[in-house]
Amino acid sequence: MTDLPGVVITGVSGRMGRMLAAMVAASGKARLVGAVERAGHGWVGQDLGAALGGAANGVIVTDDPLEAFATAQAVIDFTAPAATVEFAALAAQARAVHVIGTTGFEPAHLAALKAAARHAVIVRAGNMSLGVNLLVQLTKRVAAALDADWDVEVVEAHHRMKVDAPSGTALMLGQAAAEGRGVDLAQNREAGRDGLTGARARGAIGFSSIRGGDIVGEHDVIFAGEGERVILRHVATDRAIFARGALRAALWGQGQKPGEYDMLDVLGL
After folding, report:
1. What is the pLDDT of residues 142-182, one digit of tens each?
2. Annotated binding residues for (S)-2,3,4,5-tetrahydrodipicolinate, as ranges?
3. CATH number at residue 251
4. Which residues make up the binding site for (S)-2,3,4,5-tetrahydrodipicolinate (predicted)?
5. Which pLDDT value is given to residue 126?
6. Measured between alpha carbons, how far is 94 from 68 in angstroms, rounded to an integer?
7. Residues near 162 by Cβ (< 8 Å), separated by ≥ 6?
8. What's the Cα-to-Cα distance from 200 to each of 32, 118, 206, 258, rounded to whole Å?
9. Lower CB count within 10 Å: N or C terminus of the chain?
10. Does 1 have pLDDT greater than 60?
11. Taking the alpha carbons of 251, 125, 97, 75 in that order, is the dihedral positive or negative?
12. How far apart (Å, rounded) are the C-alpha atoms in residues 269 and 266?
């Protein structure tokens, strides 16, 4: 067991954090060696197993990420952009693989992650599932086959608690459509329609976001032409698909050269 890679989970009290902790512990492929929460959180100083309502497992929740990362070979991080940037620098110091499922990054955040990736492996993806990453590839191929007379709209739906829009997955799909067409997404992106917006611009790649209930994640890429539509769709019904993908990325990253990677690299797509 001691030969298995040690994994630290950040934001361990959250929905994904809890699921990741349970999956790593039960995987037989990695060891859960650390759990991180923000300073002042009620779980800090507690045994993680007990905090989760089960038997003690010897992993004490800490608010000191550097201490936790020092004993780890991988960090799995589904938190918030500012926290993830901080974790990236510390994971790079520890030379631990940093698997990032956080979304909502600004350009300054991405620049900081790029700097950290000069010293360690970072695997970052807006979505860790196999199905979504296949959808990304399909979107690129369909976009390459259809010209700008076909309007592209990415429609995504998530639970009411999600704080960023469009979702990271929607942006991945929009980027895939842009790459398929050979255009820049930033110059062709259309979102946030409200009121008298005027006609849709030819070649625009649109985004629509739905928030409600406990929706895990639904993504449609609609190619709308005259008299016909092509719709590519992925529906997630269980967050475990993201946890499985994140653990797979953490294991894949062992032995890779420092740099930035995504799930397409992990899955060999």
Report:
1. 999 999 999 999 999 999 999 999 999 999 999 999 999 99
2. 159, 168-169
3. 3.40.50.720
4. 159, 168-169
5. 85
6. 10
7. 211
8. 50, 41, 9, 42
9. N
10. no
11. negative
12. 8
The answer on 146 and 200 residing in a single domain is yes
What CATH number does the domain containing 214 carry? Answer: 3.30.360.10
Q: Are strands 31-36 and 61-62 parallel, antiparallel or unpaired?
A: parallel
Q: Is residue 1, in this structure, part of any structural domain at all?
A: no
Range 106-121 average pLDDT: 97
Indicate which residues carry an active-site annotation. Answer: 158, 162
49 is a domain residue: yes
**Neighbour-count burial of 99, counting CB atoms closer than 10 A to its CB (0-12 exposed, 13-18 middle, 19+ buried):** buried
Task: Output the known binding site for NADP(+).
Answer: 38
Binding residues for NAD(+): 11-16, 37, 101-103, 125-128
Q: At what angle do helices 168-181 and 130-145 cross, to 10 degrees?
A: 30
Examine residue 120 and state whether it is found in any structural domain, yes or no: yes
Query: Domain of 61?
Result: 6-124+239-267
